[in-house]
Amino acid sequence: MASQLGNIHLHSVEELANALADGTICCVDLMEALLKRTAALDKRLHAFISYDAEDALRQARESDARRKAGKMLSRWDGIPISIKDIIAVKGQPLSCASRMLGNYVSPYDATVIAKLRAAGAIVWGRTNLDEFAMGSSTEHSAFGITRNPWNANCVPGGSSGGSACSVAARFSPLALGTDTGGSIRQPAAFCGITGLKPTYGRVSRYGVTAFASSLEQVGPFGRSVDDVAIALSLIAGHDPHDSTSVRIAVPDYLEAAQRLTPRTIGVAEECLREGIDKEVEVAIRQAISFFKARGYGVRSVSLPQASLAIAVYYVISTAEAFSNLARFDGVRYGHRSSRAENAVDIYAKSRGEGFGEEVKRRIILGSYVLSGGFYDAYYTRAQKVRTLFRQEYLRILNSVDVILMPTTPTAAFAFGEKSQDPLAMYLADIYTVTANLVGLPAISIPCGFTGAGLPIGLQLLGKPFQEGDLLSVANFFQKAHVYHQLMPKDL
Ligand code: GLN
Fold first, then answer.
1. Per the domain annotation, does 229 fall within a domain?
2. Residue 3 banded pLDDT, cuts 50, 70, 90
């Protein structure tokens, strides 16, 4: 059937679902159009490490067959979503962008994937990332860099840079990423799209390769708040396979995104004072004025220890990474050195050859902060500060509905600008890590452009499990602006 919906790749998730429902398009048309676009453009952007076109088309045919038989699995049956290559998809490669896993194929589906399949979504593509999700630029992938669709000389952000790029370049209406310290929100900001990190425990982590288990969540990327809300409804919920997932009913987030409840916004003034790029500051202040002019209660809130967040994050996340990555030992799965001569050699050489530089740096740092003499000085102390952060944020969120701040201190930076200086790279996460340390939900939406044409992200943090409020405030802003509808030139 020839498509009657022009420029299929430009449509929102709801528009696509409606077009599938009234027969204007079929799912095979949709998937073929996206695959054609990807084949033509992804050579230069490299959003995907790999994708299995045949498997995607098979799923699309199955969706069409279900629809024909009147057996759709949900309203979103047939909607494609691309997946960060750190989330297990049965029968597909799970590389984590590491030589350590190379062409390892996952024997099972992560819970988020099982949930997407249960709704009839087309799960396709393995998007690029920083190795094991450690990084802020997707420069630390063993399989090459991903480029920012707005400027090919700039990074797309990271670690979920491939997922963000796949949505910004209109290869896929939706994507999944993971966010341990900003890896959904920061690339969403750099690529001019919407990205949400859910409350810790909202979404199952089963089948997601662990980097720092107490910090990370899977979350959606989409062009708009509505699209992200739809994806969140599909993946959220309790999972018996993940004891940290919480038994709280999953609301209809699309409906929540269209409601207008919260009216008070706390502005984190500290974030607008130091180390922030002038153009980012101006865009954020304009957003604040927008909310004020629309009758929102806007008040300043103080986040006094904000400057400690990066230090605390890098102590805790490296400690957890050190423990989690111990499983990659060259014995059970993944890369095994061919030069090993004895048992100890297998571990040392396999890990030495398999892991990249940034991953090794984190493992060394993690083993240091957990070692006998330093444990109390670093790890225990970081956990205490983390508790103080949580108390502070919950106290502030007693008096305001959401906290507003920039997503990042600058727009996308150039390749190589920070890759030789790990500390400079770590500072790119200064505004994002705290939501992970305290487990709160946070969203990034586009709120403007720099003079050089790079997108700027606005971040909103909400109360635990109140993603609906967050989505509704974000949507109120988004519906009054065009930033999310603009598209990189020459794509
Ligand atoms: N950029 C941060 C880091 O390098 C966060 C990564 C993430 O959220 N996965 O650790």
1. yes
2. low
Q: Tell me how many domains the chain contains.
A: 1
Q: Let me know: does 464 contact 401? Beta carbons within 8 Å.
A: no
Compute the distance from residue 215 Cα to the ligand 1 centre, in Å: 10
56 within 8 A of 87, measured Cβ to Cβ:
no
Tell me if residue 84 is catalytic: yes
Q: Give the closest residue to 264 by CA, choosing from 291, 289, 283.
A: 291
Is there a domain that residue 234 lies in? yes
249 domain-assigned: yes
Residues 40-70 as b or e (16 or more Cβ within 10 Å = b) = ebbeebbbbbebbbebbbebbeebbebbeee
Q: Which of 137, 141, 159, 245 is catalytic?
A: 159
Q: Do 238 and 245 contact (CB within 8 A), yes or no?
A: yes
Residue 59 pLDDT exceeds 80: yes
- Contact residues for 319 (Cβ-Cβ < 8 A; gap 6+): 366, 369, 370, 379
Tokens representing residue 86 in the block = 């750190």
Cα dihedral 5, 9, 15, 17, rounded to 10, equals 90
Token representation of residue 153? 């000389």
**Whole-prediction pTM value?**
0.97
Asked if the structure places residue 376 within a domain, the reply is no
159 noted as active-site residue:
yes
- Predicted confidence at residue 208, as pLDDT, reads 98
Residue from 95, 98, 137, 183 carrying the catalytic annotation: 183
Write the CATH number for 469. Answer: 3.90.1300.10
Ligand 1 pocket, mutate which of 217, 429, 433 (most atoms under 8 A from CB): 429
Residue 71 among the catalytic residues: no
pLDDT digits (tens, 9 = 90+) for 77-102: 999 999 999 999 999 999 999 999 98
Residue 63 is part of which domain span? 8-264+411-485
